[in-house]
TrEMBL record:
Region feature Disordered, mapped onto this chain: 73-115
SUPFAM superfamilies per record: Ligand-binding domain in the NO signalling and Golgi transport
Residues annotated as domain 4-vinyl reductase 4VR: 197-258
A Pfam family it matches: V4R
Entry protein name: V4R domain-containing protein
Transmembrane domains' residue ranges: none
SMART domains, sorted: V4R
Length: 258
């Protein structure tokens, strides 16, 4: 598929190089670009091509990039695609989670309820780290078929924002170092957490009450993906919940491998 992005930034120097790297890392190819100066900042138009299933990843990376103030995209989907063409627009900020608005329908199970999640992001940023009441309220409002994908999506947004706010000045780390120096302290801001080798144990997870059989590790799976992707060990990282408090385990345990 091909997508056209219109990006607004407050900086010209390094803008094309920085976003070009984002495009390549997301598995897309830059076809054409055009830059112009507006009263509101620098506008960069980009036309890219790539695999449709990686489009959400590219939009997330653009939405959290520190040089991007806002962006709009026009999706031009191939005739064989099962997804409709759509437009996405969203402001971004280094101090709050990015907002991405979508006109995808709220029903169905094809992906996250992006519009509902993005509406909660400013509140999550404002109330962080006391975010569980809002997360529980969000989950209750989500369509059943989209709860898991939407909570994972919310986790990735919040995790990416936390990394940029608290850890972005650090150097590139390998996975064990990133778990110890980034993922563990980031989780400990939310709940009591222990690290053993490549497994993180979260205690008293309020999203997974005993007996609920919810297997609701989606938010924390997304959160860990968000902070680790931004730390430079993403792309090959897999996060898997191997024990869940809701199913009788003492704690929720997440295994991270690459």
């Amino acid at each position: 598929m091909e997508v056209e992005f219109t990006v607004l930034s407050d900086r010209r120097e390094g803008l094309l190089r920085g976003l070009g790297n984002v495009i390549i890392q997301s598995g897309f190819t830059l076809l054409r670009q055009r830059m112009s100066t507006l009263e509101t900042g620098i506008q960069l138009w980009l036309r890219v091509s790539g695999r449709e299933e990686r489009l959400l990843e590219l939009e997330e990376r653009l939405g959290t990039h520190p040089m991007v103030l806002s962006f709009e995209s026009e999706h031009q989907v191939s005739p064989h695609s099962t997804q409709p063409s759509r437009s996405v627009a969203g402001p971004a900020s280094a101090r709050r989670p990015p907002r991405v608005a979508s006109n995808l329908p709220a029903g169905g199970s094809s992906g996250p309820a992006v519009g509902q999640v993005e509406a909660e992001l400013p509140g999550l940023a404002r109330e962080y780290p006391r975010i569980f009441p809002r997360l529980l309220g969000l989950r209750e409002k989500l369509p059943d078929g989209q709860k898991a994908a939407s909570m994972e999506f919310a986790g990735r947004r919040v995790g990416s924002w936390v990394y940029k706010r608290d850890y972005a000045l650090g150097g590139r780390l390998d996975l064990p170092s990133a778990l110890k120096q980034i993922a563990l302290p980031a989780l400990r801001n939310l709940l009591s957490t222990d690290l053993k080798e490549n497994s993180l144990r979260i205690k008293n997870n309020p999203l997974c009450m005993p007996g609920s059989h919810c297997r609701a590790g989606d938010f924390f799976s997304g959160f860990l993906r968000g902070v680790l992707d931004e730390s430079g060990v993403g792309g090959q990282v897999t996060v898997r919940e191997i024990y869940c408090r809701s199913e009788g385990a003492e704690d929720c345990v997440f295994e991270i491998v690459n």
